[in-house]
Design goal:
The complex is a heterotrimer of chains A (about 550), B (about 80) and C (about 270).
Chain A lengths: L1 H8 L7 E6 L11 H9 L4 E7 L5 H13 L4 E6 L2 H14 L7 E5 L1 H5 L6 H20 L7 E4 L3 E5 L3 H12 L3 E5 L22 H13 L4 E4 L2 E9 L2 E8 L4 E6 L1 E4 L4 E2 L13 E3 H10 L6 E5 L16 H15 L4 E6 L7 H12 L3 E4 L7 E3 L2 E5 L6 E5 L2 E4 L3 E2 L4 H8 L26 E3 L9 H19 L3 E4 L4 E3 L9 H5 L5 E4 L4 E4 L9 H5 L5 E3 L4 H9 L2
Parallel strand pairs in A: 1-2, 1-3, 3-4, 6-7, 6-12, 7-8, 12-23, 14-21, 15-16, 15-21, 16-17
Antiparallel strand pairs in A: 5-24, 9-10, 10-11, 13-22, 18-19, 19-20, 25-28, 26-27
Helix pairs in contact in A: 2-6, 3-4, 6-16, 7-8, 7-13, 10-11
Chain B lengths: L8 H19 L16 H18 L3 H10 L1
Chain C lengths: L2 H13 L4 E8 L2 E7 L8 E2 L13 H11 L5 E5 L1 H12 L8 E5 L4 H7 L21 H7 L3 H13 L6 H5 L27 H10 L8 H5 L6 H16 L22
Parallel strand pairs in C: 1-4, 4-5
Antiparallel strand pairs in C: 1-2, 1-3
The chains are: A alpha/beta (about 550), B mainly alpha (about 80), C alpha/beta (about 270).
């Protein structure tokens, strides 16, 4: 018992900690007494060297750290400066260069978390900085050396979906000399563009546009296109996926890839039961596109109703592209026949971007009529007329028409949830795939090695789908252009001696990184999939699951140093 | 909620906090001593307000009963 | 009172459906757990309601975990009261027992025991012995909840202060299936003190009971210091029920604290 207590309070033997206090010019030193903090750090248990630097991250500062490591045989380094988010990698690699294991480095933030927030309180800030340093030193004492995790990478990519996004991704990936496997469910690549008339603002024919990309993709020797094929099974993880493809009733195809791109697109909503939709006198924009494409379009008086089945309870999102499509087609009708009457009933017009705004102005100039309707009182289609109420003046209007065109949103594919389970990737409440971060990582999934582009993510225009496809290729390249996959060693581990296989950790792992091994009756961590979030460690009732670098002993020694 | 860097970390935390507050209350430790609030890195003023408010709450509650019990036991 | 159970167990053993039956036997005046393997040797079997109802209860499903680990391919029968059955269900969700390898044989608790336990369901879903007693609510919890916060603290501290840290509550608990226990983790709880660091020791255990405790009350019975642990864990179960509409052993599925993302709410 006594020995246990001793172990708890005492630091490991032969501890040689070096502490570097950064002035950050005047960012830190201007608001607290760095010399006093340095002097204090030198007095802490285990600390054999303490130094104040003007800029620890400068070449001079780094040299000092490296010199101290060799001269004072430091086996722990603590830098008290700015944010680890920006500077930890630099300090860690510098320590590694000097021969110290980089995982024995600890960083304390006395700028963002101290000098900057206590600018008017010199004495108190100095005391707080001392406490923060004391905590860092306390944790550093219990740090353990770790080895980076390395794994092999296959320079092959699976692209799921042969629409404009998937094709663009495949094309760009192939141009980077990566081997690409493109899988398209339909017998023909091109996706929705096959049904579309022409693209704005350039006015090119959609079919020609997509055909060019298809030809380009087909011409590349390092792309294998599987048409009429679906992904049946996916196993493995970043760098080494094993996939099973199935073409119709044919034999399954096995492939191995390093990364996966999801470009499965979306489908236009079929507005069954809305505004008397019958596919003849009341049609969708998609059907109008086909009529315009085939030259079957004949109507003289057209009313378009925006947000048909969109932005309503149960489907609250805005599909973004329908306003543009309506304006495009309205203008096209007026171009064909300036005498035609085209009326667009809308709730809000979303013509984002300068080019699209210009389209709206042009359409108005061509005589397309725009009217607002109130979602509480949506238009009614009756006996060859559209009835609606102008919300501002409150007058009821009747527009006689030959054709009603419903602008329906793009909705997620039915197969999306199956793919989401196959790849363990999240979907939002509307069934679109959810990127890792809407702004910072829009083309990544939180799961490493899986990427996302096009309307599978959110309704996208052709130009957007194309640029996302190109973008996703660069994201894949950042992974596959390395010799091997190197990930942080700060991942979870499960003690096989104490684990009883209760699956608590497995259920709580957001990354599917934990597996139950029935033969052993215990859970094990896949260190490549693990992101080091620590949910398993927090859930495990027996502390069998712990997170390296954040073990109870390390964290609690830090907390108890307060 | 749901914006956690680690996907569901904050959801798990929120569940535990909900449980813990009630357990603390039943054990005779004011549940106001535990607080959980999501503040993003872009919401400095909210963080400051929250901390000041929490400090005030704790000040009004006085020293933790645990501390008092500890002192009694030590004496 | 044991005839129906004996008959059922005999059938199960003779048909080969089970390898053995984990129940209670009386030997030399003492009652203890026993694995009956011979259909013709069930004489000594008892249910544990000898002098008073439920005076000889054992965590049979906890013992079953160990037996099942040694004989993973065999099926075993086990004697269950309402609480034991809840225990089994919960142990299934924690992957500690395989429902396909367990055949429970149920007995219903007498009213006197249901009253004493304040049991929300003093009978298993199916039982061959006894009669369905009336459910009781937790008056003990209501009583403590009614106290002022300061008095609650004082009262619990007084109770906890008697703890001699025998770990009896943990050792008998059918839901404590871990090899390594947080109550002995030196980082979490100061060791070498009596009473153990209060209230941390007991609150750590209470937290671990969240989503697990099936209210069998064995902890309370075994405690030599008479700490009303059952009341504490009853409240723990109430909280999880109030917050997440889940009560271990009563509800289906896993504990909300073990489900990724938001749990079902009230």
């Amino acid at each position: 018992m006594n020995e246990k207590r001793k172990e708890k309070t005492e630091q490991p033997d032969d501890l040689r900690i070096g502490v570097f206090i950064c002035d950050c010019g005047s960012n830190i030193a201007g608001h607290l007494d760095c010399s006093a903090v340095t002097e204090y750090a030198a007095s802490l248990p285990g600390v054999v060297f303490a130094k104040e630097n003007l800029y620890t991250c400068s070449e001079a500062g780094i040299t000092e750290i490296q010199k101290a490591i060799s001269e004072h045989e430091l086996n722990r380094v603590v830098v008290a400066s700015c944010s680890p988010r920006t500077h930890q990698p630099l300090f860690q690699s510098s320590c590694a260069e000097a021969g110290m294991n980089p995982y024995l480095f600890e960083m304390v933030n006395i700028r963002d978390q101290c000098s900057w927030v206590h600018m008017q309180e010199h004495a108190e800030a100095t005391e707080k900085a001392k406490e923060l340093v004391r905590m860092g030193v306390a944790k550093a004492a219990f740090l353990e050396p770790q080895k980076d995790i390395e794994a092999s990478l296959l320079s092959r990519v699976l692209v799921i979906g042969g629409g404009v996004a998937g094709l663009s991704a495949a094309e760009a990936l192939a141009d980077m000399a990566l081997e690409v496997i493109l899988v398209e469910k339909e017998p023909k690549a091109g996706g929705l563009l096959n049904q579309i008339n022409q693209l704005v603002p350039e006015g090119v024919k959609a079919a020609e546009y997509v055909e060019r990309i298809i030809e380009s993709v087909n011409s590349k020797s390092n792309v294998t296109v599987h048409l009429g094929t679906e992904v049946k099974a996916i196993a493995g993880y970043i760098g080494n996926y094993e996939i099973t493809l199935q073409r119709g009733e044919g034999e399954a195809i096995q492939e191995k890839v390093g990364c996966i791109v999801v470009a499965t697109g979306a489908v236009p909503l079929e507005p069954a039961g809305l505004y008397g939709y019958d596919g003849e006198r009341v049609i969708t924009q998609m059907q109008l596109e086909e009529q315009l494409l085939n030259g079957q379009f004949k109507a003289q008086r057209v009313v378009m109703i925006q947000c048909a089945g969109a932005r309503v309870p149960g489907r609250e999102y805005c599909s973004r592209i329908c306003c543009m499509i309506a304006v495009k087609n309205a203008a096209l009708i007026k171009d064909q026949d300036p005498e035609a009457q085209v009326h667009i009933l809308y709730r809000d017009i979303q013509m984002y971007g300068t080019e699209k705004e210009r389209m709206l102005w042009d359409a108005r100039g061509k005589g397309v009529r725009f009217d607002v309707y109130d979602p509480e009182k949506p238009p009614e289609v009756k006996d060859g007329q559209v009835l609606f109420e102008q919300p501002i003046v409150g007058t009821k209007r009747q527009i006689p028409c030959d054709l009603v065109v419903l602008s329906t949103p793009l909705v997620a594919r039915e197969g999306a949830s199956a793919l989401s389970q196959l790849l363990r990737i999240p979907m939002d409440q509307n069934g679109f795939f959810l990127e890792a971060h809407a702004k910072l990582r829009p083309l990544d999934f939180a799961t490493d090695g899986v990427f996302l582009c096009g309307s599978a993510r959110y309704p996208a225009t052709v130009a957007e789908a194309r640029s996302q496809g190109l973008g996703v290729a660069s994201r894949v390249a950042t992974v596959l252009f390395k010799d091997k996959l190197v990930t942080s060693a700060l991942v979870a581990e499960i003690d096989p001696e104490t684990c009883v296989g209760c699956l608590g950790c497995l259920d709580m792992c957001p990354y599917g990184a934990i597996e139950f091994v029935p033969e052993k009756g215990i859970c094990e961590v896949n260190t490549i999939l693990c992101k080091g979030c620590g949910c398993c460690a927090a859930t495990c009732p027996s502390q069998s699951a712990t997170l390296k670098g954040f073990k109870p002993k390390q964290l609690l020694s830090q907390i108890r140093a307060i | 909620m749901g914006d956690c860097h680690y996907l569901y970390g904050n959801v798990a935390t929120e569940k535990r906090v909900r449980f813990l507050k009630k357990l603390l209350a039943f054990s005779g430790i004011e549940e106001e001593r535990l607080r959980c609030k999501w503040v993003s890195s872009a919401e400095a003023s909210e963080f400051v307000e929250e901390m000041q408010d929490f400090t005030e709450t704790l000040r009004a509650l006085g020293p933790s009963p645990l501390k008092q019990a500890g002192a009694q036991r030590a004496a | 009172m044991t005839q129906n159970v004996k008959k059922k167990v005999k059938e199960l053993l003779e048909s080969g459906k089970i390898k053995g039956f984990l129940g209670l036997c009386q030997k030399n005046g003492h009652i203890g757990p026993h694995l009956f393997c011979d259909p013709d040797d069930l004489e000594s079997m008892v249910l544990g309601d000898e002098e008073r109802p439920g005076d000889s209860r054992y965590p049979l499903n906890k013992l079953l975990i160990h037996i099942a680990r040694s004989y993973p391919d065999e099926t075993f029968g086990v004697l269950v009261r309402g609480c034991d059955e809840r225990g089994l269900k919960t142990l299934y969700t924690w992957n500690q027992l395989n429902p396909d390898k367990v055949i429970p044989v149920g007995v219903a608790c007498p009213q006197e025991l249901a009253d004493a336990c304040e049991c929300l369901r003093p009978y298993p879903e199916e039982f061959v012995e006894g009669e369905r007693a009336e459910e009781r609510s937790s008056a003990s919890v209501t009583k403590i909840s009614g106290l002022d916060v300061k008095d609650r603290f004082t009262s619990w501290m007084k109770e906890f202060a008697r703890c001699i840290k025998c770990y009896g509550c943990r050792d008998i608990c059918p839901m404590c299936f871990c090899n390594e226990c947080s109550l002995e983790a030196e980082e979490l709880i100061h060791t070498g003190e009596l009473p153990p660091e209060i209230p941390i020791f007991h609150l750590v255990r209470a937290v671990h009971m969240a989503g697990r405790c099936i209210d069998c009350g064995l902890c309370n019975e075994v405690c030599p210091a008479d700490i009303p642990l059952r009341t504490l864990y009853k409240k723990v179960a109430d909280i999880i029920d109030e917050e997440f509409n889940y009560r271990p052993g009563y509800s289906e599925g896993k504990s909300p604290l073990n489900i990724l993302g938001s749990a079902a709410e009230e």
